[in-house]
Amino acid sequence: MFITFEGIEGCGKTTQIRLLVSVLKAKGYECIATREPGATKIGHRIRTILLDAAHATMLPLTELLLYEADRAQHVHEVIKPALAANKMVISDRFFDATTVYQGYARGFDLELIRQIHRIVLGGLTPDLTLILDLPVHVGLERAWQRINSRPGVLPEDRFEKEAFAFHERVRKGYLTLARIEPERFRVIDASRDQQTVHRDIATIVDCRLRIADREES
Ligand code: TMP
């Protein structure tokens, strides 16, 4: 099973993935947590280029192609081999992030993005995508707190520095995707406390796993 987490900056994906993975492992599932951009050695270098705020002059096309380059490597090196070995894969962002950030928010042609995804993904789609939804001002406040709490660590804040309206388009973009494909997406209110959000996620995933087990037997 392939599960992806999406949402605006500061929505709490990283914490929720950690909590989910530990519950799944305790239940005996073999699972890996991965992320975009940056899950492979090459991807790690691409991430540094993408998120460095000094790269303010990066062309939208450069940005789009770098995310797709990272993804091509990620799908080939990490996701497909893990799924082939019957492991659960949980990814912190995947192709929906490009549709939303580069498409809905930056204004890239959605059909062009779809075509690139046909090449890069080779038919791979998540079984379940969880959108952690919360108001933009709450997410950005959390994101800046995290960045400022780590002095000395190279800040990955090129996107946090985008205008408020950009983040509003990201949030709306995710909610639009969830409306278009309701069977794959679940929208979770991430403005609540961590444990409440975690319980919702664990229930949704548990339900999916039971359906998948029933279909297999
Ligand atoms: P992260 O902060 O969740 O690790 O994601 C890094 C940033 O990259 C985040 O601001 C969202 C952005 N992003 C895109 O713009 N397009 C993409 O395809 C992906 C995967 C991330």
Can you walk me through this structure?
This protein is α/β, with parallel strands linked by helices. It has a single domain, classed as P-loop containing nucleotide triphosphate hydrolases (Rossmann fold, 3-Layer(aba) Sandwich), CATH 3.40.50.300. The chain is built from eight helices and five strands, in the order βαβααβααβααβα. The protein has a five-stranded parallel sheet, sandwiched between helices. It is globular, with a radius of gyration of 17 Å. The two termini are 16 Å apart. Thymidine-5'-phosphate binds next to α4.
What's a quick, concise take on this entry?
The protein is of the alpha/beta class and 217 residues long. The chain has helices at residues 13-26, 41-51, 60-84, 95-105, 110-121, 136-148, 164-180, 194-216; strands at 2-7, 31-35, 88-92, 128-133, 185-189.
Query: Unreliable runs, pLDDT <50, ≥5 residues?
Result: none
Name the structural class: alpha/beta
Average pLDDT for all residues = 95
Strand content: 5-15%
Rg result: 17 Å
Give the overall shape.
globular
Describe this protein with a few key phrases.
217 residues; alpha/beta; five-stranded parallel sheet; binds thymidine-5'-phosphate
Draw up the topology in text:
Layout: E1 2-7, H1 13-26, E2 31-35, H2 41-51, H3 60-84, E3 88-92, H4 95-105, H5 110-121, E4 128-133, H6 136-148, H7 164-180, E5 185-189, H8 194-216
Parallel strand pairs: 1-3, 1-4, 2-3, 4-5
Helix pairs in contact: 1-8, 2-3, 3-5, 4-5, 4-7
The chain binds thymidine-5'-phosphate.
